[in-house]
């Protein structure tokens, strides 16, 4: 039995389509499709809420507001049987925001993770990227770079910490992780275009 079995068949396809639109960088289509999803139970309501906040924040290139992080915190602490995939999505979005260093001290997750804030300062350009992504560092160097898609699959790894060729990637949104001593020392969001 999967978590999606509590979702209607129609909404499973819609949520999958929203995820695909986000991966391709088509946030306008993702937002339009989200508005067409009728949440008929609590699992669908939580999933829709998480997707709406996340996609809208990506669309305006904004960080989570205190109210958003509180919603993610509450949903992330609920049992997955009650919230479905939304619990995992909430936890992941909070994790990325905290480790990006963009949440203020007012966020409960930011306060909990304050001592774990990333130490490596990274400048990444160009954003959006077409083929080569370049990095500059303010206080140290990572040992490796990893790029993850929105479904948290590692799709590229590199030991060259100054540039990485992303031309082979499909257009969409990605997370770039910077690794040092087998630990993640920084995160950045990347948008790949055609």
Overview of the molecule:
- This protein has 194 residues and is of the alpha+beta class.
- The chain is globular.
- The strands form two sheets. It has a four-stranded antiparallel sheet with strand order 4-3-6-7.
- Residues 1-5 and 101-117 have low confidence and may be disordered.
- The chain has seven helices and seven strands.
- The longest helix is centred in the first third of the chain and has 18 residues, at 42-59.
Order of helices and strands: HHHHHHHEEEEEEE
Strand content: 15-25%
Query: Major sheet: size, sense and barrel closure?
Result: 4 strands, antiparallel
Overall number of strands:
7
Class inferred from helices and paired strands? alpha+beta
Widest beta sheet: strand line-up: 4-3-6-7
Radius of gyration: 17 Å
Mean pLDDT: 76
Helix coverage percent? 40-55%
Shape: globular
Low-confidence spans: pLDDT under 50, at least 5 residues? 1-5, 101-117
Distance between the termini: 38 Å
Number of helices: 7
Features:
194 residues; alpha+beta; 7 helices
Please sum up the structure shown.
The chain is of the alpha+beta class. It has helices at residues 9-23, 27-36, 42-59, 66-76, 80-83, 85-100, 108-112; strands spanning 122-125, 132-137, 144-149, 154-158, 163-165, 172-180, 183-192.
